[in-house]
Amino acid sequence: MAKNPDRPFIVQGPKAQARAVGTAYAVRLEDDKGGMRVQVTSGRVAVELPPPSPPATAWQALERLWTPSAGATNGTHVTANQEAEVRIGLNAAGVEEVQVSLRDVAPGALGRSLMWREGLLSFEGVTLAEAAAEFARYSVQKIVVKGALAHERISGLFAATDPAGFARAIALGLRIKSKREGDVITLYK
Which of 1, 7, 25, 157 makes a 20 to 30 Å CA pair with 181? Predict the structure, then answer.
């Protein structure tokens, strides 16, 4: 997509949105409560509450006129080589607001985390359970990790659509066992 400041690109999650301000970035929904992760490789991204949806009925439109507005958007800007963890919380007045935690990310690390765009998954020091959950996003084959093995930390670059290859490599590297039954691959000691 061509950058155009007059027509910003917006990714809307259930509770928050990320609006490009002449940039390159990735957004990932983290949970069913509206949390998301925003990773910016260049430019700036505004993380904010989306505009309120239009009222469905005339009665709701009238009610909105007499109700104090909770739609004042708040948010923050995420810049190049930063990652934002976005959660939705309530402020002191009980109104939903975007709560953002920013952290700087080394350019190489950010590039590795965005390898999914090329069909690859890059892991550096993640738990085996986290890696299995990431593979679940890309394949119907599920990886089940038994016991304390789930906390074992791994690193490597793997094809996102080959969980069986990932399981074989991990089994060899960690000297553990791998068993496949239908669409389920189990890793165990």
Answer: 157
